[in-house]
Amino acid sequence: MSKSSTTVEVRILDKEYLVACPQEEQEALLRAARHLDNKMREIRSSGKVFGTERIAVMAALNITHELLERDTMSLATRNLLRAMDNRLDEALGESSGN
């Protein structure tokens, strides 16, 4: 069954964009647009980056960096939990053998 698509209007840095989106994804699209708008406004207000295109690229880089850091932390957390689980298994194996 195909997902029905609708057009959603989002506003980013005072400019309106029409984006095709499945109805069930509308809220996620609006959240993403708000997040991007906030990031772009932060960058613009810093006064260090000029031009909408440059601001958009910097926002994309910042958001991508955040996502990659989150993924890295998740991987590190998984590895730590796996190591702890192995230690626990070893400790339980040692105590049940005694």
From TrEMBL:
It holds the Pfam family ZapA. The keyword Cell division applies. One of its GO terms (biological process) is FtsZ-dependent cytokinesis. GO terms for cellular component: cell division site; cell septum; cytosol. InterPro entries: Cell_div_ZapA-like (IPR007838), Cell_div_ZapA-like_sf (IPR036192), Cell_div_ZapA_N (IPR042233). Signal peptide: none annotated. It is found in: Cytoplasm. The keyword Cell division applies. Keywords: Cell cycle, Cell division, Coiled coil, Cytoplasm, Septation. Belongs to the ZapA family. Type 1 subfamily. Homodimer. Interacts with FtsZ. Activator of cell division through the inhibition of FtsZ GTPase activity, therefore promoting FtsZ assembly into bundles of protofilaments necessary for the formation of the division Z ring. It is recruited early at mid-cell but it is not essential for cell division. PANTHER family: CELL DIVISION PROTEIN ZAPA. This is Cell division protein ZapA. It comes from Marinobacter excellens LAMA 842.
